[in-house]
Amino acid sequence: MSFPSVQDQLTVIKRGTVEIVPEDELIQKLETSKKTGKPLTIKLGCDPTRPDLHLGHSVILRKLRQFQDLGHQAILIIGDFTALIGDPSGQNKTRPPLSTEEININAKSYLDQAGKILDLDKLRIVYNSDWLGEMNFEDVIRLSSKLTVARIIERDDFSKRYNNNEPISLHEFLYPLAQGQDSVHLKSDVELGGTDQKFNLLVGRHLQQQNDQPPQVCLMMPLLVGTDGSQKMSKSYDNYIGIDENPNDMYGKVLRIPDDLIYSWYELLTDIDEKELPEYKKKAESDPRNTKHELAHHITQMYHGETAADEARRYFEQTVINKEIPDDADVLSFPPGSTHRLLDIIAQAGLTSSNGESKRLMKQGGVSLDDVKITDKNFELKIESGSEFHLKVGKRNFAILKAEN
After folding, report:
1. Where are the chain's structural domains?
2. Could you tell me the CA-to-CA distances from 82 to 47, 77, 102, 390 in Å, in that order?
3. DSSP string, 108-144
4. What is the CATH architecture of 245-321?
5. Helix (H, G, I), strand (E, B) or coil at 393
6. Which of these, 333, 332, 339, 378, lies nearest to 355 by C-alpha position?
7. Residue 92 pLDDT > 60, yes or no?
8. In whole angstroms, what is the distance from residue 27 CA to residue 33 CA?
9. Quick check: 22 and 11 in contact, CB under 8 A?
10. Binning pLDDT at 50, 70 and 90, where does residue 94 land?
11. What's the whole-model pTM score?
12. Nearest CA among 328, 94, 298, 57 for reference residue 197
């Protein structure tokens, strides 16, 4: 197989990358691959702990796709076995393991969404229960002997919990070994991960050396900063943009990011040519408003197409800039003389996912009737003959409430 030059491959691989351990070995592997025409084996493991992916996940998935486009063999490991343990990376407490049923449901959803980024026709998908599930207790003991407790406890999240007298379950020590064993089984040349996965990736490299295999190169990507501009993107922090998010919400949420994130989001989340990135950096500094709109359009187009991205921009201009009710807003009709709790109306219209979210939005001033904010969770609306109200929930959810004729 013919590969691009090693330098051209490095330019693509190093874009947005935080650390490569060690880079000289990656260069050697790329040179050997080009000389022999044999693709490198690129490994990315994912534990299906949630059914939905966000743009933070896309950073590492996009890097795997770049390796695919360069001609290498990408392997996506569905960690159906390691998810039973629970990855302690970055955790300040023991993560509860999932049931097999939850894992299977999440894995299917994960693959459906990852398919928007990866070339599934060229992707090798494996499940680590196929080999980890076959190990007996003797195998586990032998594997455990390859790593010392001292090295495990050096790990940042473990050392913090240990020093704070917070519990660490013994099974959590086995997680890095299980992930490392994946590398041994697959004989991976390169493993991808976020910066929070560095320890686990290095364990894989160590176990390969213990098994007389050429050690993998560890490539770490940054943790994407979420829309709040301060913490990593996470559903727990409510600063995320889902890959499956509808176009209007995706577009609007991108516009919420602080100006100083514009360039890094262009670099990590878009296909803008490497040579053009410096120009976008200048534009982000000189004209952040319009550059952010370009970014929102670009990201929305990637996941939903150009037509949907164009419509999302028009929707934003109509509802946020011009403060108009969108043409496709739901219309709810009620009998004249009836009284309804606003929380129930919001639920009926499906404008939030739960009453809890509705109450939170009310408290934050995110619910209004005819531009008047409603903060009382017990507020009741009386419908008179001929009444019509414009309900807004959050930044982009609307409904028209009116009396039945």
Report:
1. 6-221, 245-321, 330-403
2. 7, 10, 13, 49
3. HHHHHHHTTTS-TTT-EEEETHHHHTT--HHHHHHHH
4. Orthogonal Bundle (1.10)
5. strand
6. 378
7. no
8. 10
9. no
10. low
11. 0.81
12. 57
